[in-house]
Specification:
Layout (H helix, E strand, L loop, with lengths): L4 E4 L1 H8 L4 E3 L3 E3 L8 E5 L5 E7 L5 E7 L7 H18 L5 E6 L8 E6 L2 E6 L2 H5 L1 H12 L3 E6 L3 H4 L5 E6 L4 E6 L2 E6 L13 H7 L6 E5 L5 H7 L4 E6 L2 H14 L4 E5 L2 H10 L4 E6 L11 H18 E11 L6 H15 L3 E8 L17 E7 L1
Parallel strand pairs: 1-4, 9-10, 14-15, 14-17, 15-16, 17-18
Antiparallel strand pairs: 1-3, 2-6, 4-5, 5-6, 7-8, 8-9, 10-11, 12-13, 18-20, 19-20
Helix pairs in contact: 9-10, 10-11
Length: 387
């Protein structure tokens, strides 16, 4: 079997030395006629070994490093990486039957996502290289976990950049409808039709952390399938959960029934309009949760996104009673923590209220952040008191 060598310039080498796993096409000196999806040997301009990487013929991210050691990239290599990812989850995941087993670059398995839902697995192969290895990954997962079903959810936009089709469906077995557990809360999940790989696993620890702050009257915005609302319902008198999607709200109502939560009311509405209407009526709440979709999809949309985040936080701050709790999140990678805190600060100023931050949080620990790759950190969550 041939081994293709790709040569990178000094800037590319510097990124590798800093343990960043991506090399951009502009930093290639030669691609050695590599084929898309190939595992290539990466060299510097003096033909010295830099690492092994997945090569993309389409994306501006031309190389995704697998290792900086000159070792064999074989079945044993992949199996060891999977075992290491599993061992980390064994340390950080508890009281949950659904979690992220493999988080791409953060687990040194770039562009591979594997989520576990009970005895079923969901896989995403988000580059040409991992797509070429998909059958191998199905084999490895079957050998290690003997899952009842494996589903691929390869609808992510990043596959367009790799020249790959957006596809979804079962690769093995049929998962059907699943009931997953998060502490003493249960959710119904559809792995083929649900959001992302079935549901939003990255907010799991934030839902658990925010629950003890719930009391009195709670407003849960962008409730989706009611995950935050179900946690809040345990300690509050009432929860008003709002979302624009009737399909999501139907699932949220079903989840409320599943948990025997009778103090949650659901409202179908645009959250921006809903918050404005609540403000106009002089409504007040003891806790408000804001968990919107990503407003900043790319750098070009940051300015508009900041206006959106400021607007919803302004409305929420005005609706909170003195001493009330604001739980507010952004899942936009392009929205830095500093930008997000500035949005909250500006909203507080416009509302003529003071805000005390109690907790600054991120994505759950099964979505670890690679310190050399800021791209692996995207979720920011703030829990604050509004005075």
């Amino acid at each position: 079997m041939r081994t293709t060598s790709v040569t990178v310039n000094r800037r590319g080498v510097e990124r590798a030395v800093a343990r960043h796993l991506w090399i951009y096409r502009s930093d290639l000196i030669s691609n050695g006629n590599a084929q898309g999806g190939e595992i290539v040997r990466v060299l510097d301009a003096k033909s010295r070994f830099v690492g092994w990487a997945l090569y993309s013929s389409s994306s501006q991210i031309a190389l995704r490093f697998l290792t900086f050691d000159d070792v064999a990239i074989d079945h044993e290599f992949w199996s060891a990486r999977l075992k290491a990812a599993e061992q980390l989850r064994n340390r950080v995941v508890s009281a949950a039957t659904a979690y992220r087993l493999v988080y791409g670059e953060s687990d040194l398995l770039p562009s591979l996502i594997v989520d576990r839902y009970n005895d079923c697995l969901v896989i995403q192969t988000l580059s040409q290289g991992m797509e070429a290895l998909k059958s191998l990954w199905v084999e490895l997962l079957v050998d290690r976990y003997h899952p009842r079903a494996i589903v691929e959810r390869n609808e992510a936009r990043v596959r367009d950049l790799e020249g790959l089709p957006r596809i979804a469906g079962p690769l093995l077995g049929d998962p059907g409808e699943l009931i997953i557990h998060e502490l003493d809360i249960q959710y119904s999940v559809n792995l083929i039709e649900g959001q992302k790989t079935g549901t939003f696993l990255d907010q799991r620890e934030n839902r658990i952390a925010a629950a003890p702050y719930a009391r009195g009257r709670v407003l849960d915005c962008f409730t989706f399938q009611g995950a935050f609302a179900l946690h809040f319902a345990k300690g509050s008198d009432s929860v008003l959960a709002c979302d624009i999607s009737p399909t999501a709200l139907a699932q949220a109502q079903s989840n409320a029934q599943l948990n025997g939560s009778t103090n949650i009311e659901f409202a179908e509405a645009n959250v921006f309009d809903f918050l404005h209407a609540m403000d106009s009526r002089g409504e007040q709440f003891d806790l408000i949760n804001l968990d919107p979709p990503a407003f900043a999809k790319n750098r070009a949309s940051i300015e508009a996104a900041m206006r959106g985040y400021k607007e919803i936080n302004l409305r929420a701050i005005k609706l909170l009673k003195p001493g009330g709790t604001l739980v507010t999140s952004t899942c936009s990678y392009h929205m830095s923590e500093e930008m997000f805190l500035n949005c909250i600060a500006e909203a507080a100023s416009d509302a003529r209220r003071s805000v005390q931050i109690l907790e600054k949080r991120g994505q759950a620990r099964d979505h670890p952040v690679m310190v050399s790759m800021p791209e692996t950190q995207y979720l920011k969550c703030v829990i604050a008191t509004v005075v």
